[in-house]
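Late entry, evening session. Most of the bench is empty. Finally got around to the prediction I had been postponing all week. Sequence below, unchanged from the version circulated by S.P.
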Amino acid sequence: MENEELEFVPTPGPFFKFADEAEWLTAARAAGFMIDVPVYDENGEPTGETEEKLNAYTANHAIDVVGTITEGGEWDDEGNEIVAPTVLDGWHVNYLGDLPTGWESYEVKPSSPHRVFA
């Protein structure tokens, strides 16, 4: 029996499109992905305050917030915009892990994703 090398070809996705950033944050909070972390001053001392952060990478999930997606556009050699890019609808998020409850309604299946997990 010969040793055969198996080639793993990852399947991208799932991909999610929320109406806007606010809807994404509501869904992320409901799924338990937002956590409060301590705030530190310039000397590294805790201020007693906290700020909300996305807990994007754990042993159980990975979250890539793409946000707004644009296509096209033209710029000159100095970086000045000649033709504005087209802004696509929605707030986009890539996700790996068990699907949070209720997220089925946000899933999209683009034929050519703009960004995928490597």
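Two things to note before I forget:
The longest helix spans residues 21-30.
The beta strands are 15-18, 34-40, 46-54, 61-67, 70-71, 74-75, 81-83, 86-87, 91-97, 107-108.
Will write this up properly tomorrow.
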